Amino acid sequence: MKETQAIIERVRRINETHQHLYLAIDPALSGIRAGQSVLARTGSGWTPYLREQWYPVDVQKNTLIVERPAGLRYEPGDVVGLIGAVGQPFKFRKTLRSVLLAAYDSEPTPLLMTIPALLPQKVAVTVLLLGDARKYTTQHLPPEVEVLQGDNDLQWANRVTTVGWADQVFVTTTDQDHYTRVWHLFRELRAEIPANYLWGVCSPTVGWGVGGCSA
């Protein structure tokens, strides 16, 4: 990990609930990959003291695009302190035909960086929104991406077919128990879960936040 500074070059509203920030970044961060994030602090000095975890949705030449709630105010020219890249990148199988991205009671943001990586490789991508994740509207996603919606009980149309054709599955949730439920569902429907088949990004709300130790 490395501590750097970024400048917000552009702010774009993408739907009713979220916006994209275009950050001019240090070249050292250009290698960030799907599954990784950055620890960000806006403002000056130690205000605020705690950092926030920001997930990128795409990276271009010296530009990192991150997704943030629409209710937060950011302006072009604002300086953002970043620590990253944080975490391990997803490991895609060498042979992929279809990938399922599932968000369960959580926005799908931590998974969306997979889309610009997979679509150019002719990999079919399906986004599955379960429970409260259905509040996230998807008109801004590429038209090649299929979008499905399900309920809190992990029921959705053509569930058996969806689980059967997915070569790899990535799940994001704020609750470890939710991820466990998804694991058991796929184990029941597929009989077994191969290595590197089902990945989880769990982002629980923690009381202590991210402070000076960067932990």
Count of alpha/pi helices: 3
Category from helices, strands and their pairing: mainly beta
Query: Largest sheet, order of strands side by side?
Result: 4-3-7-1-2-6-5
Strand proportion, as a percent range, falls in 35-45%
Q: From N to C, what is the helix and strand string?
A: EEEEEEEEHEEHEHE
Distance between the termini: 12 Å
Report the sheet with the most strands, covering strand number, pairing sense and barrel closure.
Answer: 7 strands, antiparallel
Written description of the protein model:
This protein has 215 residues and is mainly beta. It is 13% helix and 36% strand. It has a seven-stranded antiparallel beta sheet with strand order 4-3-7-1-2-6-5. Strands 10-9-8-11-12 form a five-stranded parallel beta sheet, with helices on one face. Strand 1 and strand 2 form a beta hairpin. It is globular and about 55 Å long.
Structure, briefly:
This protein has 215 residues and is mostly beta strands. It has helices at residues 114-118, 159-165, 176-190, and strands spanning 2-13, 18-24, 37-42, 52-54, 56-60, 63-69, 79-86, 98-104, 124-130, 146-150, 168-173, 198-202. The protein has a seven-stranded antiparallel beta sheet with strand order 4-3-7-1-2-6-5.
